[in-house]
Design brief:
It is a single chain. The protein folds into three domains: 224 residues, no CATH class; 49 residues, no CATH class; 154 residues, no CATH class. The chain is mostly helical. It has 21 helices and no strands.
């Protein structure tokens, strides 16, 4: 019954999206395609986590929602305790209430923000509006994800006005579409990543309070969802910002490096016990321990971190390699593994094409270099700290739009000419 209510809500919201004047960069047809793709993917996700992996207590699309109902119930029982927990200022007396939730605390948690809590909090807030109906919460998560993808679409169009490339990258990459179409961290991550980048782009043109508020909100969410995304994003934003003002590679590089150095020193002063190397080492150790505890069947070999820069340097290319190559052909067991394998094969072909394009003289603009560096930095961090294939496929999904868009721009001239000469391309371009 919950999913039926959700389906009705999905249809109503879809009609409103198609006729809304708020999404002017995308035609009603484009919105309908993107929204329908979200809906189909969400159904596939629900099917997999109810039929293929039927244990509800371990299914990510359900476990954070179920925990949120415990938190929402507290709003009626003890509003002050609910407020403290929601705002992150809970006290020892609130521990009995916190222990009613299964995933508020994590067994493996090495000094990084617990991103489970963000999903639980957002669900708890939605429960106050939806009455805790799963289907309605799912539709709201789909809407947040759609918003994030739309902002990414607008962000990409700013750098290259090829609508089809931007549309495919923002809305139709299989892994990104699949993992951002449920009550999952990735849906919120797409919202916050897209909102943060789009608001920065808008603010660089003109100061507007609405975009300043959006930038602050999404920055906060990124800090508590996937902080490594923010770390990887910072060099790209700084370099591009300095380059736009100076039009000099040297000034941009020096400005970005100087700013990052100041930020790192400030972080060391504010958190004297913090160390990047020990954090990464602990994260890798915790993930391997957790994978061993649950008998994860798709673990791959990775160099154990020992807290030295030498090992980290060795792990950088290995992490990228792992994200691009796995799952390999020996790991193909189900639809998800086949999808990831085909997607990786496509990425490798795009990468080879981009290398050929550059060799043939195609110039890589600053924005393309920034997007590729951002994507491969995230690939490296994921590949070195989460050596389980299923986790890598899921964790890298939010940055694929930037990788794909950058690689598509760098394809050889004969490939782009062949693609653009297909009759369907002009037709689609005028209708998106």
């Amino acid at each position: 019954m919950s999913l039926v209510i959700g389906f009705i809500g999905f249809l109503i919201l879809g009609v409103l999206l198609c006729y809304s004047k708020l999404f002017r960069q995308l035609s009603p047809l484009g919105r309908a395609i993107a929204w329908t793709a979200k809906g189909v993917s969400s159904l596939a996700l629900v099917y997999i986590y109810t039929s293929v992996y039927p244990k509800r207590s371990e299914a990510d699309i359900f476990k954070y929602f179920d925990d949120s109902k415990q938190l929402t119930a507290l709003a009626n029982e003890d509003p002050s305790a609910f407020g403290r927990i929601f705002l992150g200022t809970w006290e020892n007396k609130d521990l009995p209430s916190l222990n009613r939730m299964n995933y508020w605390f994590r067994s493996y948690d090495h000094g990084l923000a617990n991103d489970n809590r963000m999903v639980i909090r957002v669900n708890a807030l939605m429960n106050l509006m939806t009455g805790g109906v799963y289907g309605l919460n799912l539709v709201l998560f789909l809407f947040l994800s759609f918003l994030g993808c739309y902002w990414i679409y607008g962000f990409l169009l700013h750098f290259n006005a090829h609508k089809i490339s931007a549309f495919v990258a923002a809305f139709l990459i299989p892994s990104t579409l699949f993992w951002s179409s449920g009550i999952l961290k990735e849906s919120l991550l797409m919202f916050s990543l897209g909102g943060f980048l789009y608001s920065l782009l808008a603010l660089s043109k003109k100061w507007q309070i609405r975009f300043a508020v959006l930038a602050c909100l999404t920055l906060y969410m990124l800090l508590f969802l996937k902080i490594y995304i923010l770390f990887a994003l910072a060099p790209m934003i700084l370099f591009y910002g300095f380059y736009q003002r100076s039009k000099s590679w040297w000034i941009a590089g020096l400005g970005a490096l100087s700013t990052l150095t100041v930020l790192i020193f400030a972080l060391r002063i504010l958190m004297p016990g913090w160390s990047l190397l020990s954090t990464l080492q602990g994260k890798q150790f915790d993930f391997i321990q957790m994978a061993n505890a649950v008998h994860a069947g798709s673990q791959i070999w990775v160099i154990p971190m020992d807290g030295t820069w030498e090992t980290l340097v060795k792990l950088v290319p290995l992490g990228i390699f792992n994200c691009l190559v796995f799952p390999n052909i020996s790991m193909l067991e189900n639809f998800l593994s086949w999808n990831a394998f085909i997607e990786n094969s496509w990425l490798v072909l795009l990468l080879v094409g981009a290398i050929i394009g550059v060799i043939q003289g195609k110039k890589a603009p600053v924005w393309a270099i920034g997007m590729l560096l951002f994507s491969f930095t995230v690939f490296s961090l994921i590949g070195m700290t989460a050596p389980v294939v299923g986790a890598m496929v899921r964790y890298k999904a939010p940055v694929l739009p930037f990788l794909v868009f950058g690689l598509m721009y760098l394809q050889p001239h004969f490939m782009t000419t062949f693609f653009n000469n297909q009759k369907i391309i002009p037709w689609l371009t005028t209708r998106l």
